[in-house]
Each structure stands twice: as C-alpha cells, then as structure tokens.
Amino acid sequence: MIIVGGGPAGAALGTLLAQDGHKAIILEKDIHPRDHVGESLTPSTNLVFDRIGFLDKMNDNGFIHKPGTGWNAPRSPLWKFVEIWLFEFPLPGTPQPYTYNVERDEMDAMLLRHAHENGVKVLQGVKVTNVLFEGDRAVGVRAQVADGWERDLRARYVVDATGRRCQLASQLRMKKKDPNFNQFCIYSWFRGVKEPPERYRGFTLFYFIGLNQAWSWHIPLKDGKFSMGVVVDKEDFQKSGKSEEEFFFSLVGRNRTFTHAMQDAERIRPWWIEGDYSYKIDRFAGPGWLLVGDALRFVDPIFSSGVDVALFSSLYAYETLTEAMRTGNEERPFAEYQRRVEAGVDLWYELIETFYKLQNLVTRYASSPRWREMIVRTLQGNPYIPDTQNRARTLLDAMHDSYQKALADPGNLLRPWAMDPERADLPRCPQCLGVVDYIAAEGLYLCRKCGARRETAPEEEFLQAVPLDT
Ligand SMILES: Cc1cc2nc3c(=O)[nH]c(=O)nc-3n(C[C@H](O)[C@H](O)[C@H](O)COP(=O)(O)OP(=O)(O)OC[C@H]3O[C@@H](n4cnc5c(N)ncnc54)[C@H](O)[C@@H]3O)c2cc1C
C-alpha cells in the first residue's frame, strides 16, 4: 500500500495497517518536523489516538490540555465567554476529560515516527508528482526526491493523504472550490498575550469581530506561547488595502477582549497566511485509490474539525481497505466508505453554515439547559456514527425552526446581525431602548436616555430574555 503524505491522516492510516500486519509505505515530501496550521483538537480525536496506541505519547509530550472552548461578541465584557465544557457530558470510550492544543510540528513528527515504530516504511523528502493509472485503475506513483531523481513505485492501493494539496483530486480534476466560503487566514505565535481567568485555563477561545464569516482564535500552547489568528472573507482583506500585519491588528481592535489580550503581545515567528482553502470533492474512492483527510474535502475550521476528519477517515479507510483485500471485492466497501465519511463531513459543513448564519441563536442554544447536552456532544466530534448524526440533526432542525420564527418577527433579536452595531442599530438599553455606551474607565454600560448603568452588555441581557420556545 502506498500512502502519499505523512500528516495526521497518512500517519494514522499507515499505523493501523502496519499494526494489522499489512505492508505500507508513506511518501512525505517534507522533512518533519514541519510547521502546520490546525492546533486545537476535538475530544473525539482521543479515541483514534487511543486506538493506535498514541495517547500516552500525547500526554508524555506535555501538550496543553484543552477541557473546553468559548466565544464572545465584539462588545462582550472583558473575558466573558459563552463557554462549552467539552467533557461536561462524558464522551464514551475516552479515558480522559480533556483533549489538546498542539504544536503541529511536534505532534505530526511524533505521529509519523509512531507509524515508523509500528513497522511502516517512511520516506521523507520524497514528493509524489503523479499517481500512475492503467486504464481507470491506480497502480502506483511517480516519486521524486529533491535532486530530481525519480522512480515509479507500484502498489495494490494508492491512498492520497496529501492534505490541501489534493494530489490525486487535482490530477483527476475533481476538486471544486466552495462557493460559500472564500476565506483568508493570518496567524502567528506570540508571547506576552494576557491570560484569561484561571477558569478558562487550556480553553481554545474565539473572538467574534463583527464581520461576516469572520472570527479569531486564541490558542494557548506550551511554554507561554499563544497561537493567535484571524479568519475573514478574502474580499474584506483585499478591499482593506492594508498589509497583513496592519490588517491583523485592525481586526484585533474590533473585539474588546481580543484588544486587551494583545496589549503587550510580542510576535515570535513570521506571519503565516492561508487562503482559499474550502473545497469539495465528489468522489472519495475509485479502482485502486482512496482519499483521506484534507485530501478528500476541506471545510471552514471554526469547529476544529480538520484533524478529527483526518483521523476518522483514516480509521474508516483502514477498515475499508482491509475488507477489500480480504474479500477481493472493493466496490461495496468503497461505496460504504464514501457514504460514511461524506455523511460526517456534510454534517460538519451544515453545522458551520448554521453557526455563521445564526450565531445569536447558537449562542442562545448553548446557554439553554435544554439544548446544552446536544451542543456539547455535537462539538465533541466524530459525526460519522448514527448516534452523533441523529443528535446533530435534531439540533439543526430545532435551530432552523427557531430561525424561521425569528425571521418572521422584525423585533426579534435572534435575527442574524440584529445586535451588530455596523449592520443594525446601536446597542440599546433593555429598559427604555435608549442608545447605550460602554464606559471603559468604569467597566460598565451607560444608557444615554434613562441613565441606567449595568455591568452586562445590553445584547446579552436581551438574548437571555428571549424565550426559546422550540
Ligand atoms: C486556517 C486554518 C485553521 C485550522 N485550524 C484547525 C484546528 O484548530 N483544528 C483542527 O483539527 N484542524 C484545523 N485545521 C485543519 C487542519 O490543518 C487539517 O485538517 C489537518 O492538518 C489535515 O491533516 P492531513 O493529514 O489530511 O493533511 P496535512 O496535515 O496537510 O498533511 C499532508 C501531508 O502531505 C504532504 N504532501 C503534500 N503533497 C505531497 C506530495 N505530492 N507528495 C508527498 N507528500 C505530500 C505534506 O507535506 C503534508 O505533510 C485548520 C486549517 C486551516 C486552513
């Protein structure tokens, strides 16, 4: 078996195959450790790490434990978040109540070494330039090393784990740009970022910045480092006429807590830019070939779903390939692979779309005791099994229902952007509907009309007051 690409997807698949006695070779174009975006993991990645005997290595490395995640609005009071404790409802099968925030150069190098230690042949600095076909069947690859030396290698199956390079899908012209997401991301690592209160230790935090399909992340890493990044619609960056650094800091200024957190921050490595990254591929498997991880699809990363997809698609690819080899029939397991993985990734996609469209509503649901368990379990990851799927569907249906009701009522604050200062009105006093200003020196909100002073942002008081009747 040839696996092209030694990121989390390729390394996990190689390990699973080798542990089951199959011969696998991983061809990786870079030499690990190499930098990579994607530092916040879902709880369910524990399940695959455990399955391949890698969880102890994650713990031994000292990666930051992530027990939860939180988000806030541009004018939320300092360090106030909608908080999701990801293990508030136990994740069946996981031996620990936390997942991780990781330095990807370290984690990916460790995973690749783990594959090697389990018997996978790992060749680094070897780039695959072409997947070789006989008729419509993949039969091998053309491999090239840096000095130009090339060789054709043959195998029963070729698995594309090349991440967003999508080697095979590009070769077969199957990659389609996502019409709904055209995002652009700038991030780097910093020291001196202000730490949130103890309660949020290890949390991945998201700051919303009042722009469409835009957000920023705050991920604590080891030794006092923080990964801080912004995601925006690419057009917003292009229209701004700013350099990447100027643009980044102009967005920092759009969220009160983000501004505070970055006050004394010092950048410790170059800016890292990612653009145009969302796409779809309709076919995940064909005669002699299969796609895993980002090589099969990439959806917006707001729910930290990337490594989850990489690991679970690899687990299912392993089951698919071993069944095909055992039975000599690949059609049925390949079709099942497509169905299972597609259903899971489609669900991530729908959740992301819903989140962008109905952010106020999702926030409201997350604070509702009635819906909290469903929200937490959905964000735990692994949406490929019927249980998770049914739960997420119930949640999505309920939210869409609430949305229709909110839309029908022009005064309903759960409408998209209803409380956004640039798209709707200024923040209003819940008592008299006068305009409310934030008085930074006193850390409170003052109504211009009735003079009421309050500590909570008016939009939050409004949201708490809106009943959820679904
Ligand atoms: C802005 C942004 C933020 C993100 N945040 C998160 C997050 O917080 N959490 C999360 O889980 N995910 C996140 N992701 C997604 C995450 O980065 C990926 O989903 C994850 O790395 C996928 O793993 P993979 O193994 O499929 O691909 P990769 O990790 O990209 O690995 C692919 C490997 O293939 C190699 N390769 C490529 N082409 C060739 C070739 N021709 N020959 C040989 N080798 C080749 C590459 O060198 C690479 O090592 C984010 C992504 C973006 C863009």
Give a concise summary.
This protein is 35% helix and 23% strand. The protein is an alpha+beta fold and 470 residues long. The protein folds into four domains: 197 residues, FAD/NAD(P)-binding domain (3-Layer(bba) Sandwich), CATH 3.50.50; 133 residues, D-Amino Acid Oxidase, Chain A, domain 2 (2-Layer Sandwich); 50 residues; 46 residues, no CATH class.
**Count the strands?**
25
Instruction: Give the ligands present.
Output: flavin-adenine dinucleotide
Main beta sheet strand tally, sense and closure: 8 strands, mixed
Content-based structural category: alpha+beta
Computed over alpha carbons, the radius of gyration is 23 Å
Distance between the termini: 51 Å
CATH homologous superfamily descriptor of the largest domain:
FAD/NAD(P)-binding domain
CATH class of the largest domain: Alpha Beta
Characterise this structure.
- The structure is a single chain.
- This protein has 470 residues and is α+β, with helices and mostly antiparallel strands.
- The protein has four domains: 2-62 and 102-175 and 283-344, 3-Layer(bba) Sandwich (FAD/NAD(P)-binding domain), CATH 3.50.50.60; 64-100 and 182-277, D-Amino Acid Oxidase, Chain A, domain 2 (2-Layer Sandwich); 358-407; 425-470, no CATH class.
- It has helices at residues 8-19, 45-51, 55-61, 104-117, 167-171, 234-240, 244-252, 256-261, 306-327, 331-357, 359-366, 369-379, 386-407, 458-465; strands spanning 2-4, 25-28, 64-66, 68-72, 82-85, 99-101, 121-124, 126-134, 137-145, 150-154, 158-160, 175-177, 183-191, 204-207, 215-220, 226-233, 266-267, 272-275, 279-281, 285-286, 289-291, 297-298, 436-439, 444-447, 453-454.
- The strands form six sheets. Strands 4, 5, 13, 14, 15, 16, 17 and 18 form an eight-stranded mixed β-sheet that branches.
- α10 (331-357) packs parallel to α13 (386-407) and α12 (369-379) packs across α13.
- The longest helix has 27 residues, at 331-357.
- It is globular, with a radius of gyration of 23 Å.
- The N and C termini lie far apart (51 Å).
- It binds flavin-adenine dinucleotide.
- Flavin-adenine dinucleotide is lined by residues 4-10, 27-30, 36-41, 127-128, 161-163, 165, 167, 185, 274, 277, 293-295, 301, 304, 306-308, 310.
